[in-house]
Structure formats: structure tokens, C-alpha cells
């Protein structure tokens, strides 16, 4: 079975500082990986995705993530955060060759950007 | 607006009552998902449709929950005899079939927040 672990439940960071949100996944087969952002009382919005190809994936709002198969990780990074980046971030995994199309989410990381 | 639409956005109901939520996916998206999200948690998979066929159901989906997608367009999620533990955000998402049948991302609606009192 697939699973996702987000190691940090909350990450406070000062504005204009870099940030890394960690995500590890568990799967015995190849996977597809996603990062979503959720603002209060809103649905989820896709930040970026890894399906295949280059392991460094660039997304919206200046975010990027690197797929590391050996470490089964897909950490999200941004070199300089803004107040507006304050939100909940979810890592998700899908695929696996079993024919299932569902997305499995982690428990989320709350990013709080401080002025 | 051509995004995923959910109705209602908020629902307050008394314990024991039945509720029904509606989801209108993005046009021509053949996959539709229902998730449940409680405070401080990530979305939990409930069920998934490919066109009108319900292909997978989570064990979380007790027999009080039923979902339909007639004609492969909009979907409804019904909860019978609601319990306080059903209080959550119910999220609907849709995704298209990729050009090479690979996964693409799921597009989420704004959710329906259910409060059972």
C-alpha cells in the first residue's frame, strides 16, 4: 500500500527566507507525486507534479520540488517566501501500476510566514 | 467559471438526519473523486468514479454513505442517519484522462463543510 509522511506539522519562517517542506512516500512500485496548497476554507490547488523525466520540478508561485527515488522523498522548496504563502501544504502520491487512480495525501504542513 | 463546483458550501444538520451533497466536475473530466477532510488532517479518499462506474470505495465509506454519478456527469454523495463524527469538509475532485492514459492532477472543488449537531 502507498503512504505519504509529511515530517513537519508546522513550519514558521520569516518573510524572504528560504523554506523546505519535507515529504517522504512509501511504495513498492513507481509513483506519481504532487504538492497541493490549501488556503483557509478553500479547496486544494496544485502547486506542482512529478510524473516522469527530470527529477527537479518547477511549479507555480516560485515553488520547486525534487524527486529522490533512493530516499523516497519529494521535498518542496522556495528560495524566498512571502506572507501570502501562509497556507497548508499537502504532499500526495498516486499511481503504482495497480490500476488504482486514487490520490493518497499526507497529513499536511502548515507554513506560517512571519513579517 | 469552469472549475469543479460543489453545493452547498456549508450544511448544518441535526444528528440522525440525511444529507446530500452535489458535485459538478469540470466538463469532460471522466474521473471524479470524493474525499473527506477533518481539521488538521489531509484529505482521506472515500470513493472514485470513472464515468458512471464507481470503481473503488474506501473502507471509510460505511453503509450510511452512498455516492452516485448518473450519466457520468455530476455526482451526489448522500449520508444517511448522520452522526457527529461525520462533521468534516467533503471535497470533490475531477481529473481528465491523460493523452497517454497517465495520471494528471486532480482538480478540487471548494468543498462542502458539514456540521452535525
Radius of gyration of chain A: 14 Å
| Strand runs of chain A, count | 12
Number of strands of chain B: 11
- Which structural class should the secondary elements of chain B be placed in? mainly beta
Principal-axis shape of chain B equals globular
Range of strand content of chain A? over 45%
Q: Gap between N and C termini of chain B, in Å?
A: 33 Å
What kind of sheet is the major sheet of chain B? Answer: 7 strands, mixed
Task: Give an account of the 3D structure.
The complex is a heterodimer of chains A (115) and B (117). Helices cover 0% and strands 50% of the residues of chain A. By secondary structure, chain A is mainly β. In chain A, strands 2, 5, 6, 10, 11 and 12 form a 6-stranded mixed beta sheet that branches. A 4-stranded antiparallel beta sheet of chain A has the order 3-9-8-7, with no helix packed on it. Chain A starts with a strand and ends with a strand. Chain B has 117 residues and is mainly beta. In chain B, 0% of the residues lie in helices and 48% in strands. Chain B is built from no helices and 11 strands. In chain B, the strands form 2 sheets. In chain B, strands 2, 4, 5, 6, 9, 10 and 11 form a 7-stranded mixed beta sheet that branches. A 4-stranded antiparallel beta sheet of chain B has the order 1-3-8-7, with no helix packed on it. In chain B, a hairpin with a 6-residue loop joins β4 and β5 (44-50). Chain B is globular. Chain B starts with a strand and ends with a strand. The mean pLDDT of chain B is 91. The chains are: A mainly beta (115), B mainly beta (117).
Amino acid at each position: 500500500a502507498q503512504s505519504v509522511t509529511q515530517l513537519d506539522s508546522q513550519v514558521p519562517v520569516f518573510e524572504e527566507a528560504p523554506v523546505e517542506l519535507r515529504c517522504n512516500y512509501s511504495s513498492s512500485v513507481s509513483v506519481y507525486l504532487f504538492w497541493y496548497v490549501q488556503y483557509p476554507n478553500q479547496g486544494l490547488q496544485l502547486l506542482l507534479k512529478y510524473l516522469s523525466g527530470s527529477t527537479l520540478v518547477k511549479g507555480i508561485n516560485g515553488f520547486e520540488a525534487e524527486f529522490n527515488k533512493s530516499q523516497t522523498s519529494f521535498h518542496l522548496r522556495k528560495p524566498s517566501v512571502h506572507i501570502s504563502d501562509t497556507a497548508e501544504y499537502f504532499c500526495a502520491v498516486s499511481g503504482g501500476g495497480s490500476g488504482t487512480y486514487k490520490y493518497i495525501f499526507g497529513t499536511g504542513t502548515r507554513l506560517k510566514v512571519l513579517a | 467559471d469552469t472549475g469543479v463546483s460543489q453545493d452547498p458550501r456549508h450544511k448544518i444538520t441535526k444528528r440522525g438526519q440525511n444529507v446530500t451533497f452535489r458535485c459538478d466536475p469540470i466538463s469532460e473530466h471522466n474521473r471524479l473523486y470524493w474525499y473527506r477532510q477533518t481539521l488538521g488532517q489531509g484529505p482521506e479518499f472515500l470513493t472514485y468514479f470513472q464515468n458512471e462506474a464507481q470503481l473503488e470505495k474506501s473502507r471509510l465509506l460505511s453503509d450510511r454513505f452512498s455516492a452516485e454519478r448518473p450519466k457520468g456527469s455530476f455526482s451526489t454523495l448522500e449520508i444517511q442517519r448522520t452522526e457527529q463524527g461525520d462533521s468534516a469538509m467533503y471535497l470533490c475532485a475531477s481529473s481528465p484522462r491523460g493523452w497517454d492514459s497517465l495520471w494528471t492532477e486532480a482538480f478540487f472543488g471548494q468543498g462542502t463543510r458539514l456540521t452535525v449537531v
